User: Which sequence fits this backbone?
């Protein structure tokens, strides 16, 4: 849309939507079916996994894993992109599987290494599970944190 900027050496997947004034710094990697709402600014060398949704006005300083919704300041996990997944034909059981993976990662108070080990040990191997685990392992900047209320 209007006034988006994609800097040098970026990789943008298929079927992405960048709303007005979204900006990618250099060397950013964006997966397929990613939606960036208006005024999103993505730091250099950040990766955003496929089917992710980043809310308007967000500053993306850390990697955003696949299938999630990212919001708030600092940018945090706020759930999975269930609406986007349904629109793309994902069934309810697959969406629940993805949700369960992210519950372990973001809501059980494990560090990333512990969560990855638990997910690998306790959850059935599926393409989605393996993609999420590989994304976390490949992250150079670290993945965004979960949301913690300050009240």
Assistant:
């Amino acid at each position: 849309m209007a006034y988006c900027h994609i800097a040098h050496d970026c990789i943008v997947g298929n079927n992405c939507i960048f709303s007005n004034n979204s900006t990618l710094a250099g060397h950013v990697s964006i997966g397929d079916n990613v939606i960036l709402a208006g005024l999103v600014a993505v730091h250099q060398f950040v990766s955003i996994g496929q089917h992710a949704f980043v809310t308007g006005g967000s500053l993306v300083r850390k990697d955003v894993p696949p299938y999630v919704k990212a919001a708030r300041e600092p940018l945090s996990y706020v759930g999975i992109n269930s609406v986007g997944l349904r629109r793309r034909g994902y069934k309810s059981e697959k969406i629940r599987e993805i949700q369960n993976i992210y519950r372990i990662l973001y809501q059980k108070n494990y560090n990333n290494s512990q969560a990855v080990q638990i997910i690998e040990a306790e959850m059935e191997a599926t393409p989605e599970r393996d993609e999420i685990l590989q994304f976390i392992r490949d992250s150079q900047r670290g993945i965004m944190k979960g949301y913690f209320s300050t009240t």
Summary: Residues 53 and 69 are 5 Å apart (CA to CA). The longest strand covers residues 76-80. The mean pLDDT is 96.
